[in-house]
Amino acid sequence: MITVIGSINMDIVVKxxxxxxxxxxxxxxxxxxxxxxxxxxxxxxxxxLGSPVQMIGAVGEDSFGKELYSNLKNENIxxxxxxxxxxxxxIANILLHDSDNRIIVVPGANFDVTKEVVDxxxxxxxxxxxxxMQLEIPVETIEYVLDLCQQLNIPVLLNPAPAGNFKKEWIxxxxxxxxxxxxxxxxFGADVEAILSKYPNKMIVTLGGDGAAxxxxxxxxxxxxxxxTPVDTTGAGDTFNGAFAHAIISGYSIDKAVQFANIAASLSxxxxxxxxxxxxxxxxxxxxxxxx
Length: 292
Fold this sequence. Notes:
By secondary structure, this protein is an alpha/beta fold. The chain is built from 10 helices and 13 strands. It has a 6-stranded parallel beta sheet with strand order 5-4-1-8-9-10, sandwiched between helices. Strands 3-2-6-7 form a 4-stranded mixed beta sheet. Strands 11-12-13 form a 3-stranded antiparallel beta sheet. Strand 11 and strand 12 form a beta hairpin. Helix 1 packs across helix 8, helix 8 packs antiparallel against helix 9 and helix 9 packs across helix 10. The radius of gyration is 18 Å and the shape is globular. 45% of the residues are buried.
């Protein structure tokens, strides 16, 4: 069982040919709402691949909350541990223009994922093969879960995004840490090979289209990216994380798990939306076979 403790958002996307100046009104040419939140995205990615997944998070009693709850349930994710609170459901307001974007995130109910919510689901957490977290819920909850999982001897995969919420002392309590290249530089510095050598088989750095890298205790290992025709790169990192967790609990070695996750992420960018292109296990295995 993969337990995801994290954020559930509705992405509100508006596309325009002109970024409005202060006080200006312009016409847009696209409006859509898309289920998101790093926690929910990673849960969907793992569930699509066939892993049993349960989500611990929070939504409001509003229409977005109901839609997001139903969406996760329809993805065969166990939603019984999702709290419903008096706060509004978290949203990300995304303004798109050409290749640029401006995003405002309002955490809302995501900040109601407290220690009390964790304690209420302790028996569920005890059944976990791995716990996945990101940093879009309160820092105090992250710390609490890390200590709890250490006591229970449950592996933790932590995706340090947004990186500004990460505390370096957590790294000893984390089984797998998965920053992207930008987050890695912000947290640890620009020399990826040197950084990875300090955290063998623990830190995996994703490199976008260039793949991912880690240190296996003996040498630096880079798994190259896979050529694809990208439609929307949103959610590729979340797909990587969900796929890596799925592969690890399926018994893959770290290098095979990174390869599997890399392929899953490359497939995910071929469709629109963070969750829209997340692949099935069969699709990933078929692509792996093609690349042999």
